[in-house]
Design a protein that fits this description.
six-stranded mixed β-sheet; globular; single chain; alpha+beta; Nuclear Transport Factor 2, Chain: A
Length: about 150
């Protein structure tokens, strides 16, 4: 009985040892992520835009593209992939945040991504508009440790 009582007393304390980010902080971090993602997908994107995006991510991270079953865990591989995409012809790209939900150092972003692009490996333009869900997990340093991208 006493063990159970101690569990109920000390278990909540263990969760407050690392203070959770506030709702406002998580919303700001999520917005910053979307802004950096959008900046690195523009016709005039620079390597500085890519580096600004990557600087939001912790050294140890997981980036999952769930629909395509692709996982990236190294910043160098992530950066190389983004630089390779700079050779695509981008006419326009836009991301609009529809909703942000937060809790427990996690932000869930529902956003509409639209654009027109000609990927370097294709000989035709692709126009797209889709609602996507991104889940971001943050560490105590406010860096992203886990990205889950659910493409619509």
């Amino acid at each position: 009985m006493y063990k159970l009582l101690l569990l109920f007393v000390f278990l909540p304390l263990s969760f407050t040892a690392n203070a959770a980010l506030s709702e406002g902080e998580l919303e700001q971090l999520a917005t910053k992520f979307v802004e950096a993602k959008n900046a690195r997908q523009q016709p005039e994107t620079t390597t500085q835009d890519i580096d600004a995006f990557i600087n939001l991510i912790a050294d140890e991270f997981v980036d999952e593209h769930v629909k395509f079953k692709v996982t990236i865990t190294e910043k160098s591989a992530l950066r190389e992939g983004m630089i390779a995409k700079m050779s695509d012809k981008i006419y326009y790209s836009s991301i609009v945040i529809n909703e942000i939900m937060t809790g427990g150092n996690v932000a869930i972003i529902k956003m509409t991504e639209s654009g027109k692009v000609r990927p370097n490996h294709l000989d035709k333009d692709i126009t797209y508009s889709s609602v996507n869900i991104v889940t971001l997990e943050f560490n105590d340093d406010k860096l992203i440790t886990h990205i889950r991208r659910h493409h619509g």
